[in-house]
Amino acid sequence: MQSFLQNEVKELSKYNIGIYGLEDKPYEFDYEIGPAFFQEIAQDLIERGDFQVHLRLEKSSTMIQLWFDIKGSAELTCDRSLEPFDEPVDTQNRMILKFGDREEELTEEISIINRNATQINVAGYIYEFIALALPMKKIHPDLRNQEEDGDETETLIYSSEKQDSSEGSDKTDPRWEALKKLKNE
User: Fold this and answer.
1) Whole-number mean pLDDT of the chain?
2) Are 95 and 112 in contact (CB under 8 A)?
3) Do 85 and 78 meet the contact criterion of CB atoms below 8 Å apart?
4) Region Disordered: what ranges (predicted)?
5) Residue 10: which H helix or E strand, with range?
6) What is the DSSP letter of 129?
7) Which residues contact 162 (CB under 8 A, 6 or more apart)?
8) pLDDT tens figures, 81-106
9) Is 65 within 8 Å of 94 (Cβ atoms)?
10) Is 168 left (phi over 0), alpha (psi -120 to 50) or beta?
11) How do 84-100 and 110-114 pair as beta strands?
């Protein structure tokens, strides 16, 4: 996840949390995310956005649990009309950072961090949770009703055999019979 972060960017250093010396108890952090955040992360999905992030961190001797509550909107470009629109986002996510000898991502929710780490940066996690909350098809809200209506169009299926509702009918379309005669000549 941290691969989205560029080298020590000032804007993203706001998301550093010093974990060295934290007592084993819960902590809370609040962040206001604006366009500068998305400009500093190496990505092309979101150009602008305004979000409020409430982060609850719970440290224990073996791990750090992070609960993210993210609300706001991202400015996206419609795939169909190429017009910008705001897509609302409201997502809750959890991340578990276990202390170990090396840095490794075990699953989408669990990573190992070096036990000697003095700080973590949560900007990459915030970006990924926002990106995962966005729809795959970016359709302007004004066009979404048309999208739903368009899904009901009938699909035509072409087959070399005649469709007959009566069972046991092995008759083929006479047009294919004429073509079979040409093939055999």
Assistant:
1) 82
2) no
3) yes
4) 144-185
5) helix 10-13
6) H
7) 171, 172, 173
8) 889 999 999 999 999 999 999 899 99
9) yes
10) left
11) parallel
What is the pTM for the complete model shown?
0.71
CA–CA dist 18, 16 (Å, integer): 6
Instruction: Report whether 94 contacts 68 (CB < 8 A).
Output: yes
Estimate to the nearest angstrom the gap between the alpha carbon of 61 and the chain centroid: 31
Count of all residues that appear for the chain in the document: 185
Q: Over the Cα atoms of the chain, what is R_g?
A: 27
In the chain, the amino acid numbered 174 is P
**Residue 128 amino acid letter:** E
Q: Are 5 and 12 in contact (CB under 8 A)?
A: yes
Closest CA to 130 of 17, 61, 37: 37
- Give 152-161 pLDDT, tens digit per residue: 444 445 555 5
